[in-house]
Every structure is written in structure tokens, then in C-alpha cells.
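Bug: C-alpha cell stream looks shifted between consecutive jobs. Job 1:
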Amino acid sequence: MTTVLDTAVHLFLESEMESPRVLPVDFVDSHRFGAGKPGHLVVFSRTCPDKDEPNDDSAAVIRLPDGALVMAVADGVGGAPLGYKASAIAVQCIAESLQDRIDGSDLRPAILDGIERANAEILDMGTGAATTISIVEVQNRIARGYQVGDSMAMIVGQRGTMKWRSTSHSPVGYLIESGAIEEAEAMLHDDRHIVSNLVGSREMHIEIGPAIPLAVRDSIVIASDGLFDNLQLGEIAQLARIGKPLDRMNALVALASKRMRGEDHSMPGKPDDLAVVLMTP
């Protein structure tokens, strides 16, 4: 199901996409990539193969009247009650908080307030539901990430350079960050399904990333662990930077789906719901 609150907000809740959706090119501020060259936004979300329950992943793309852009992916905790509802609450609270913001003001207070609202609402449900969320704001050619859980985001340069990536809030994610294990080992780790930080927890904490100046050819990927648990970071960086925007997303989805189905014998796969937001030049 895709919900459009107004011309500036697109929410993707319980989505079952057969193919990625390309948002209108004028949805991305032309000043982001240079005069006369608006960027592109592509979104994909669908349920895990052979899963009967609703898609626990939600996504949001919000363009504010002053040209600022906010993108988010939330992944409701699998196995917990109403994971799909928790992820929907998270992206809806972000959208609502941003709509209350004064044009031209700092995005950070509105984003943090949205996450905190979501945490309170999910806790008030009293069902044990929880979700991750990964957010990237883009304003005046500066990007900044916000993170709770193991949905992740990354900024990739034209030549595949990793300009920035978030850290997965999980035991395995912290092991990778510390250099204790390699990515390939992480994909086989017994604890890769464990998440250390969630929206819907009284111990929730929000990680705020650094301000990253964006170059003309930079791409941004925000996704649930359906992508990041099936592809290595270098693979994502390469696929996200080459070709037309729709071709890039199709390549990411195709490889993740192949591994989820166990058809890539060179690499392990983890069946899961999948949501990806891709911003490209």
C-alpha cells in the first residue's frame, strides 16, 4: 500500500512492489546536483519470499517546501507483535514532525522529535512491538544520517568511494566496526539477527551522523537489513553508482533476491523483507 499525504510526502507501508517506483524528478531539489540537473529518487519495498504476514518494512520520502529532503526506512522487528505497524508509526511520526517544522529551520530537532514520538507511541501500544529506523536528511547540499537499530544508510562517491556509512546497532555490527570480524564472517555469524537498539524500547538511543558535503555525482542508499545482510558494502557501493537510476535499484534488488532464495552458491543469503530508498544524480 502506498499512501500520499500531500504532494511533498510519500509513505510506503506494507508495500508489495513488483518493480521499483521512480518518484518525479522535480521531487529532488535541482540545486542538490547542480543547476538544471535534478536528482532521482527510486524506492522499492516488498515482503520476504514465501512469507504470509504483512511486510514489516516501511519507507518514507519527504520533500519540504524549502527544498530540504528527508528519506527514511524502518524495519519492524520480525517475530514481535505488529512489527509492520511499528515501522509504519515510525515513518509517519517523522513525516508529521517535519510538517510541523518552520521552513528554513534546522531539520535535526524535528527528526529527533519524530523518532521520540514514535518511541512513545509504540511503547504505549503495550504489545512489545518495535522497529529500527534509518534516516538521511539533505539540505543545502549537506547530508546527515540518524540511526536506531540495524537498518543502515551510506553515501557513495562517483568512483565507488564510501564517503560515509552508518553503524549497525547490533552485536555483529559492532564487531565489524571494531575490526574484530570481516563482513564475510558476519554474514555467517549466529547472532546476526540480534538488534541492540530499537524504537519501542525504553533504552532507545539515537545516533546522529556527521554533516557530509555532497558532490554532484554522490549517491545515497538507505535500506533495511534485507539489503545489508545479503550484500556486502562494496557490492552495494558498486551497484548504486553505475547506470540509470532504475537500473541501479533493479541490480540491488536482483542480487539481494537471488541470495535470499539461495541461488547464489558463492555467498550465503538471509530471507527477509526488503525496503530500499536510492537517491542518485
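Job 2, same session, no restart:
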Amino acid sequence: MDARTYRTESGTVHYWTDTTAGPDAPWLVFLPGLTADHTLFDAQMEHFSGRANCLVWDAPAHGASRPYPLDFTMDDYACILHDILQSEGASRPVLIGQSLGGYVSQAYMDLFPGTAAGFVSIDSSTLKRKYYPTWEVKFLRHTKGMYLSIPWALLKPWGAWGAAETPQGRANMRSFMDGFAKREYCELAGHGYRMLADALESGRTYDIDCPALLLCGEKDHAGDVKAFNREWTAGEGIPLVWVPGAGHNANVDNPEFVNVQIERFVAGLDA
């Protein structure tokens, strides 16, 4: 992978590319979830190397893209991503977002309609407000205090066990948390959930205007993600595939299955 940087007014965003597949190959853009870094998609970057042009980032305030002030919105993320993709010549990306990355993908498609070739959601859910009860949106604004109230020695193993079902998935999540001090982690998590609440309450009326696929771990216990995916597929008609034996970080828990699903999806775009 080639390490790259993109400078914004607030800080430097780090991302990685693999363009060994050549100029005619599709672009797969991997977007990790809240508090995770680019290593969440190591198995996908390795699998698709030479088969597709790939890009994965550490979102602002994540991983190597720190320090970065917590003053960004979901749309800010989408705009930064758009600028990065433009600079790389990735004009028709397939957006593959896990959790927060799925929300960023939808904001991207809302702001830049007609530019995405496809969208794969991994353990994420819709940005349309109508699918969320009011209490849940309000709860999103109070997660920082809840996290701060939990001792760090307990929060780290709970976070790892809540995000993944396999030893490799839990080790991967624990590695992200070990990279933070407690206060920084809680501040970032709290800002991320508030950012999601703001995006939901913005009243956006977008439609996903490209082929899409929903992937969700059959053992995902993160909030109501499984229920939201059932409602999302029923309400929007987007195919939903359950990832066997996987939790919230399904692409780490069962990378072989997820990679096959992404492969089939991308192949279908050219059919």
C-alpha cells in the first residue's frame, strides 16, 4: 500500500491506496467505523490487491489522522472524502462503509448524487430519520457521559467483546482502544454519536442512487443495528445478507464471507 496524506484547514488526513490493478479497474473505498482505523479493512485490502484499485482512510480524529479538532460534521467527512477521491482520480467509487463508514457513504451520495458506482453497508444503517424512534436519537447525544462513567479497565474489554465475536475481531478492536487515552476515546465516541444524531435530524430526503448491498453480522449486538437492517431492507428494497458467526465488525470476524459478497456485488455492477 502507498501511504498518502490530505491536508485540510483543521489537520492532516492519512489514507492508503493500492492501484496495482491498473487504471481500468474499479475503485473500492473502505471506510472504517467510529474509533476504528484503517486496519479494520486489512483483510479486504489484501484480498482485493491487484483485483481492484483500493483506498482506505483513517478518518479525521482517528488513527494516524490525529490530532484533529472535534468540530466536523457528517457532511464534512463526506466532503473531505470527495476531495481525496478527486485527487486520486477515483471518480466512480464503490463505497464500502462499516458502521460510521456506512453513514459517511450515505452523506457522500446525498451531497454528490450520481457519483458512486455502488454502496456496500457493513453493520451500519440508514440515515433516514423516519426509521428511528425519537428516544434513540436523543440517547445518541448522551453517550459520552455514559462512557466516561465506566472504568477504562472495564470499558476496553467491553468494547472489544461488544464489537466482535471472534478472537481476531476482538483483538483488532482492542488494538484501536489501546491507542487512545480514556478521555480522548470518550470524547471521540461522544462526538461521533452526536454527529450521527445531527445528521439524522437534518431531514435529508436522499435516495441511494446506485446499486447497494447490506451486510450485517448475524450476531451483531451493537444497539439495534440488526433491527434497523431488517427495516432498511424492507423499506428501501436493498438486499440484505447476514454474515455467519459475525458481530458488529463483520468484515474482521468473517473476512472470507464478506470478501466473497463484495466480489459478487462488484462483478454484478459490470453485468
